[in-house]
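Q: I have 122 residues here and want to know how they pack in 3D. Can you give me a structure?
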Amino acid sequence: MVIEIDFNSEEAIYMQLTNQIIMGIATSRLQEGDVLPSVRQLADTIGINMHTVNKAYSLLRQEGFVTIDRRRGAVISIDADKIKAMEELKQNLTIAIARSCCKSVTREDVHQLIDEIFDEYS
């Protein structure tokens, strides 16, 4: 998997890294059981601080996308708890839709956008 960091982006580097790994899982470029590069190896490859990679891996672990194994390192381990995932999605969508409604985005606009995004991952 190729990780590309935009050093000019306002988004924090650890979040860019986290989001790219999540996108890799969503698009099946990363599969259950795949081992991510070590913190040191990924930091050297991308040219970032090891603490930044460690922060991204910790966040991925907290969110249920990876487990940390002492011998293997960070391993893709998708959280199988669908109910928890659906509740989290509902919370995030509620806020996003509320913001959109304030900007006059219609229900049809939201449905179309969700269909477009979903089609990218199915």
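Q: Anything worth noting?
A: The longest helix spans residues 82-102. Strands lie at 66-69, 73-76.
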